[in-house]
Write a structure and sequence with these properties.
alpha+beta; six-stranded antiparallel sheet; 938 residues
């Protein structure tokens, strides 16, 4: 067990609070629902960026490269000023939703370069221009561009010309859970000497100004063995027992400044300040020369150490700090040799940790991608506080008190969120999204299985899950509908732990299972509109792939029967079946529930595969479509070839012979039901004796072999879904052949759009009309491996369609994964597709290995689009590198299902020669073909 694993074990067992401090500070708290106090509900304008430096937040904090404790009581982050900007750089800037031509958009360059799961070592990079930051230019140009034009980025403004910028690296290393070393390294990349004001800042989140907020804490100056230091302490004894006083010790030449983390009401609202010292005091002092803005008494709730640096061209300056709960424990010189040795040791330990989860056959570049993807996942943890009950009471809109008003989330008054949560993106999406979180857990399982499990359980807690059984979507509307992927993610985590340790966490599985029963019942009762086992609901994230906004009312009063909604529910059912089988092995009481979910799967498959013109399956096209059903009972298929029609093949789960044999009575009843009601099974994959595959396995799938082949032939067609970097969300066929639907005299048109959305129907920057999205690609890969475990090498398909190259389904899954990973890999020309045509990103040695894991990717060229730091579900690329760098086709066929979750080398198998092992990875093409297969392309 290496050092990081020991720390994880100590944290899990409660022996050391290694995760008490972490990167839990948001990167944008302004413009969020939590901070919205307006009557209109316009969160972006209720609290804009311009107010953020002057207005105390209510529910959280934001900052540059920030850390805080796990209740966000005490925070630390970086503040910068180049002497030219109109304001201090205390937080990342970006356009609000209505300002950007594709919605909200951060306009900064920053990178999460490294982190261990316990945050014992972290590294962050911020690129700060030496010219004045072009705030007005970015806003003006963003407003002038149409949806058909690309976004105007910081690089386009010219502020990085001649490399006139600073690389600011921030590193953290923990000597102990409450002793954090900080090293800030500033590189001047420009041709001339440049000045930088560096202000490491310590502050308390403002809780004392709000009802029941407790006593006001304090930060004051103190002497620490001849050094000026900051002592931050809570004055409430009960709180101080949880978080003792901390000392920030600084090295070098600096000056301490103090103020209060209080709103500047005079600047914002024209009202006299309660205190002369307010949140934006450091900005007033440095930028505007107002010496009276800072507190000469050297006390407050916000303080900083001011370093005035002059850095020669090509040179660097290093600043060292230390945040410790007890200065008396530190050595006489806290910044001596031991300081640098501790950093060196933590970096070696981080190297050892990542070496342990990176496949030996991975290339150096793939290892870098895996590490930065997971580092981004770990940096994107955030303290999230939202007491909806209090929020509604303050607005006079609490339903239990008979109050009026209809603010958002009124029916979610039971919620009190107060946890560290994995965010999709701490600037663009600094709030959890329930279905994103399920994909996050899959990637996080590589680094920290305990945190991944905790995240899955969190969404099902009684203070999150609605009493009706609905899982909350996201803060803008908790009642929005997200795809039900939590059962799959929870089962994945169980299997991951089972394969790594030899036993799964049954207690975790039981707790999750019980809550998922409530959620499944909610779906059946609320989203099966007419009890026909077909589902609707909109499905945030897949909404704008279709003809209409499926979350709203449809033209002519009709409703949709959704191919993806029904497929999601079939998938949910399959996951509950597998969970029930696992639990029934330990408790026969679960057999009744297993029977229930097997029957539910039959009903849903029957609804999905209903025969005739009003069914979702189109026999002529060999594809599934949404069905628009009008009030007069007539129906028509909306023939958009999109991810909606591919998702039915994702509802595929293998039942091992060993699982089946443990519940013989339930399986007999299942087969009897099928024999008695054969009308349920047309189109569905056949099951039962005589229908078994490799190793006696059975396959629960919405599609039989014929339909599977037809769907795959479209999916793997490079003129339709198959692109150089994975599976597009919409067929490229619709570029030349848009789908047009007329109703009530209005045309509704859907075209293939490989990049940013050209439609304002759905708002924001969401676009499923052509780009590549990693989460659904992951589900497709999972399904292909399930089919392969059933069919084995006997099932081959042409890949790509029309190429003359036949592949097994394992090889197809690996090829899709290879294309996904290739988004980030530097190709033979030295370029990474994710960077597009940005020459500095592609070629400059200070940029080209700093990776961004975008929200989605251009469907033709692979450049990153949407939220630039969506390290949440795009972090799944790490799982792809690990999986296909470790697991062979033989492993998948020979072992039980757990092998595809986290594989370890089998002791009874010798490793293949190096040349073959290299071919199994993503670094080069696999040599040769299978015996009897069509020749492969050279």
């Amino acid at each position: 067990m290496h050092a990081e694993e020991k720390r994880l074990a100590e944290a899990r067992e409660g022996r050391a609070a290694w995760m008490r401090f972490g990167p839990y500070v948001s990167e944008r708290q302004w413009g969020t629902v939590r901070e919205d106090d307006s009557a209109s509900g316009d969160a972006w304008n209720a609290f804009p960026h311009d107010q953020a430096r002057s207005r105390a937040y209510r529910h959280g904090e934001d900052g540059l490269a920030g850390i805080c404790d796990d209740r966000q009581t005490l925070c630390f982050a970086l503040t910068l000023w180049n002497g030219r900007d109109p304001i201090l750089k205390e937080r990342l800037f970006g356009l609000a939703n209505e300002e950007g031509n594709h919605g909200e958009d951060v306009k900064e360059y920053y990178y999460y370069l490294d982190s261990t799961p316990t945050h014992s070592y972290m590294r962050y990079l911020y690129k700060y221009p030496q010219a004045a930051f072009p705030y007005a230019d970015l806003v003006r140009e963003g407003a002038s561009r149409s949806r058909l034009e690309p976004e105007y980025e910081l690089m386009d403004t010219g502020v990085f010309r001649e490399n006139r910028y600073f690389d600011v690296f921030v590193e953290y290393a923990k000597a102990a859970p409450d002793d954090i070393l900080v090293r800030i390294t500033v590189h001047n990349r420009g041709p001339e000497a440049a000045r930088l004001h560096l202000l490491p800042t310590l502050w308390f989140r403002n809780t004392w100004s709000w009802p029941d907020g407790g006593q006001k804490p304090e930060i004051r100056a103190m002497d620490a063995q001849g050094r000026q230091a900051l002592l931050a302490r809570l004055t409430d004894p009960a709180e101080a027992a949880r978080l003792p006083g901390h000392v920030l010790v600084c090295d070098g030449d600096y000056t301490l400044f103090f103020t209060e983390n209080e709103t500047n009401t005079e600047r914002l609202f024209g009202r006299k300040n309660a205190s002369p010292y307010v949140k934006d005091a450091f900005d007033a002092f440095l930028v505007h020369g107002r010496a009276e803005a800072v507190n000469p008494a050297r006390t407050g709730t916000k303080a900083c150490a001011h370093y005035d640096l002059a850095v020669a061209p090509g040179d660097q300056a290093v600043i060292r700090l230390r945040l410790c709960a007890s200065y008396s424990r530190l050595e006489e010189n806290p910044f001596g040799t031991a300081f640098e040795n501790l950093f060196a040791r933590r970096i070696r330990e981080a190297d050892a940790f990542y070496a342990g989860i990176t496949p030996a056959r991975a290339t150096q570049d793939e290892a870098r991608i895996l590490r930065q993807a997971l580092a981004g996942m770990l940096w994107t943890k955030q303290y999230y506080c939202f007491d909806v009950d209090a929020w509604l009471r303050e607005r006079g809109a609490h339903p239990l008190r008979g109050e009026g008003g209809h603010p958002r989330n009124r029916e979610w008054f039971h919620m009190k969120n107060d946890h560290i949560i994995s965010m999709p993106d701490k600037w663009e999406y600094p709030w959890y999204a329930a279905w994103d979180l399920a994909f996050h857990a899959i990637a996080l399982s590589l680094a920290d299985i305990d945190f991944a499990k905790e995240q899955m359980a969190l969404m099902l807690r009684c203070d999150y899950l609605h009493p009706s059984g609905q899982i909350p979507a996201y803060e803008w509307n908790f009642s929005d509908v997200n795809p039900p992927v939590h059962a799959w993610a929870a089962l994945f985590l169980y299997r991951t732990e089972q394969s790594a340790t030899g036993r799964g966490d049954l207690d975790f599985l039981k707790r999750i299972y019980t809550k998922l029963l409530l959620n499944f019942t909610w779906w059946v009762n609320r989203k099966d509109r007419f009890g026909k086992n077909v589902f609707d609901g909109g499905f945030l994230g897949l909404d704008n792939i279709g003809v209409f906004d499926r979350s709203k009312g449809l033209p002519a009063g009709g409703h949709l029967e959704q191919a993806d909604g029904t497929a999601w529910m079939a998938f949910f059912c399959q996951n509950m079946i597998e969970m029930s089988m696992e639990l029934a092995c330990h408790d026969p009481a679960y057999e009744d529930l297993l029977h229930k979910f097997l029957e539910h799967f039959l009903w849903i498959a029957s609804g999905m595969n209903r025969q005739g013109p009003d069914g979702m399956w189109d026999e002529a096209d060999g594809f599934y479509y949404d069905l628009l059903r009008l009030p007069d009972g007539s129906a028509s298929r909306l023939k958009v070839r999109s991810m909606v029609g591919l998702l039915p093949l994702c509802a595929a789960t293998v039942i091992e012979a060993s699982q089946r044999d443990r519940v013989p009575g339930v399986m007999r009843a299942f087969y009897d039901r099928l024999a008695r009601l054969p009308e349920l099974s047309p189109g569905m994959h056949p099951v039962g004796p005589g229908r078994r595959g490799v190793a006696g396995r059975e396959l629960l799938s919405l599609v039989d072999e014929t339909r599977l082949r037809r769907i795959l032939s479209r999916m793997l067609d490079e003129n339709e879904f198959f692109c150089p970097h994975g599976i597009r969300s919409m067929s490229r066929h619709h570029l030349e052949h848009p789908y047009v639907f007329w109703t009530e005299g209005r045309e509704h048109r859907v075209s293939y759009v490989p990049g940013d959305s050209d439609s304002g129907m759905f708002g924001g920057n969401s676009n499923w009309r052509g780009p590549v999205w990693m989460p659904v690609n992951q589900l497709i890969i999972r399904a292909l491996l399930q089919y392969y475990r059933y069919y084995g090498d006997d099932f081959c398909i042409e890949c790509p369609t029309g190429s003359g190259t036949n592949m097994t389904l394992f090889e197809v899954a690996r090829e899709i994964a290879r294309r996904q990973v290739s988004l980030f890999v530097r190709g033979p020309d030295g370029r990474r597709p994710v960077f597009g045509d940005r020459e500095m990103f592609q070629n400059d040695p200070h940029w080209r290995d700093c990776l961004l894991f975008s929200e989605y990717f251009h469907g033709d060229d692979g450049r990153g689009l949407g939220a630039s730091h969506q390290t949440g579900w795009t972090g799944l690329v790490a799982k792809l590198i690990q999986l296909f760098g470790t697991v062979s086709a033989q492993d998948v066929l020979e072992a039980d299902g757990s092998v595809v979750f986290l594989a370890t080398p089998r002791p009874d198998r010798k490793p293949p020669p190096r040349s073959v092992r290299a071919g199994d990875g993503f670094g080069e093409s696999s040599p040769g073909g299978r015996p009897g297969a069509a020749p492969r392309r050279p």
